[in-house]
Amino acid sequence: MSLSFDPQQCPVLAIDDHLPAVPRDRLAALALRDRFQRAPVWQPERVADRQPVPMALVHASVLIPLVLRGDDITVLLTQRSERLSQHPGQISFPGGRAEPKDVTPIATALREAEEEVGLSSEFVQVLGTLPRYTTITGYVVTPVVALVQPGFRLRVDASEVADVFEVPLAYLMSPAHHRRHAVGEGDEAREFLSMPWTSQAPDGSLRSYFIWGATAAMLRNFYRFLAA
Predict the structure, then answer these.
(1) What is the β-pairing status of strands 58-69 and 95-97?
(2) In terms of pTM, does the model score above 0.90?
(3) Which of 149, 167, 133 is nearest to 61 (CA)?
């Protein structure tokens, strides 16, 4: 999928409000732990961008941080800096490419989250991983799902991250908020998902975030995992 287009200008083909939301009781911390410990039989819906990828694939990991906020859980997301050469300004999870010192994909995700946003691993309890996702830019990404205890202090690396925000997990696990788009025509048409989110800033203004691409695809797989 070309990065020269504005995904927000692609028309909405459908909204998946015919699919049920994940029940609220499955979104509690204890239920999430149990789901990873006794995972059901399921299949990921999306495993790659729908275009050929470069031959030399790069292993990477992202952290899907589920922040415990009282009786609710939120998902911590970042907006990438406009100065980055790849995916500038896009919404993503904290993460990045694996380094030789990383023993496992989980180690990569924890290290990258601390480097990008200062999320200390002492607040993080890893639940497990989701199936890998291959991006058009040649990254084979392992999503690492974790609970995050409150009380952490973020230290954002401004060279990589422009903003950090949280979205209720229940919102993202409701397909009524999952929109289908397509870019291109005929045999070249490619579908992608979006999950737009609007929140209120401390000054009272509204801030809109367009969650799409690989991030939305991994969230959709997380939905399938919890709904199975």
Answers:
(1) antiparallel
(2) yes
(3) 133
Region 7-227: CATH code: 3.90.79.10
User: Residue 221: which of 118, 97, 88, 128 has the closest Cα?
Assistant: 128
Measured between its terminal Cα atoms, the distance across the chain in Å is 29
Per-residue pLDDT of the chain (228 residues; tens, 9 = 90+): 444 578 998 989 999 999 999 999 999 999 999 999 999 999 999 999 876 566 689 999 999 999 999 999 999 999 987 665 566 679 999 999 999 999 999 999 999 999 999 999 999 999 999 999 999 888 999 999 999 999 999 999 988 899 999 999 999 999 999 999 988 776 667 889 999 999 988 788 899 999 999 999 999 999 999 999
